[in-house]
Amino acid sequence: MAENVIKKDKKNYKAVDFLGGRIFTDERVSKQLPFIVFLAFLGLLAITNRNWSEKTIRKMEVLKDSVIELKSRSITYSARLMDASRPSEVFDRVKKAGLGLEEQVDPPRRIVVR
Asked: Which residue ranges make up each domain of the chain?
């Protein structure tokens, strides 16, 4: 008699039962429903995390490109400043501006106060 009860509880589900919704009325499936919902929530959480990570990686790549561009600009401006601050270049600019300044011929001397 116990064998008959075991055989009655064991059902083979078909695709028609799943598509028709009859599978959700079974007691064994309804007991597992909270676990299924929890698994679905974890799946959505994993998908969301993946999308967020990919968006962050894309932003990082854009920022890396802009850092490289800004670094090259910085090097260019630094080279221009080095050229502009050479004593001969400064002297030529002062002469063109007509400020009446002259280049110092004597080296600087230390002033000693007693």
From this structure: 10-92
Write the pLDDT tens digit of every residue in 32-46.
888 999 999 999 999
The SS3 of residue 109 is coil
Q: Is the pTM of this model over 0.85?
A: no
Q: What is the pLDDT of residues 49-71, one digit of tens each?
A: 999 999 999 999 999 999 999 99
Alpha-carbon 76 to chain mean position: 28
Nearest Cα to Cα of residue 101 among 111, 89, 93, 113: 93
Could you give the 3-state DSSP secondary structure of residue 13?
A: coil
Tell me the C-alpha to C-alpha distance, in Å, between residue 107 and each of 101, 103, 104, 110: 16, 11, 7, 10
Categorise residue 111: left if φ over 0, alpha if ψ from -120 to 50, beta otherwise: beta
Neighbours of 94 (CB within 10 A): 14
